[in-house]
Amino acid sequence: MTHTTDIPRDHERAALPAHLRTALQLAELGLPVLPLREGKLPFGNCRACTRSACGDRQNMKAAGPCECPAPCHGWGAATTDPDILTSPAWARAWRQAQAVAYHPGGAALTVVDLDDADAIVWARETLPATKTVSTTRGEHWIYLGTMTSPNNVRPGVDIKSVMSYVRWLGPGTGRMQLLPDVVRSLAVKEPTEVRPAPCAVTVPAPAGDAVCRHRSPAYLERGIAMAEQRITEAPDAIHKTVYRTFLAVLSAHGWCGCLTENHVGRLFTAAQAKGESLRHCEIAWTNARTKLGM
Predict the structure, then answer these.
(1) pTM for this one?
(2) CA–CA gap between residue 134 and residue 144 (Å, rounded)
(3) Which end of the chain has fewer CB atoms within 10 angstroms, the N or the C?
(4) How many CA atoms lie within 13 Å of 1's alpha carbon, on the beta-carbon side?
(5) How confident is the model at residue 226, as a pLDDT?
(6) Burial level of 273, CB count in 10 A (0-12/13-18/19+)?
(7) Which residues in the chain show pLDDT less than 50?
């Protein structure tokens, strides 16, 4: 969607909300940004986007994953477009914003989030030094390169890159290094014994080099649509429903490489529309992958 908002000049920015001024500065540096509300959470979807009414992830290059001009769809709303950031549709969010976040994957970055002193000691002994930003409880170690964004890869350590967001806490210190294999390996877990899941799940053998058993994209699309519907229509026990649904989708479609970020994003959007936070979605997804030994 095209906006007609003029890009504020330096003398005009002084009248803007402080977080918006910060966001515009970061956008000029190539960091896709978005406002955060209280609790370090993105703003919820507008009425037009609630429960996938907007069609969701139609256009990741716009203000969000769909045509909506508002800052909807969590991390997907992150943008570097000043016209979007200063548009009337975003004005209310900036007035209420408690912080600014950025999408690391959108800037080709990966953030290793160290939550406590023990995690920092581990990083200093294990990871190559890179740009570091101090946080309330620990540090962000920032590398150049992208990867998946699993949480709890080890005690006190999360990874934020694609399909994720990180609160902006300043430029940090040190020289940024290329994303090393030791960080990528944190997302690879050794297969563990799989105990019976709380719901019936059949885990197929990995497809390997064989022809994809889905054969037709319609099969996968039907599976994702059914998963969205299951989450959307859940009357209660949302946490459990989201986890079980993620587990079922991964067991049926996660081995052959057909799942894309688009499919995963649709599931996350459905869950967030029911009140799940982005962090809870990420944890549920990571736990489901771990359960299946992926």
Answers:
(1) 0.61
(2) 18
(3) N
(4) 19
(5) 84
(6) buried
(7) 1-5, 57-64, 191-211
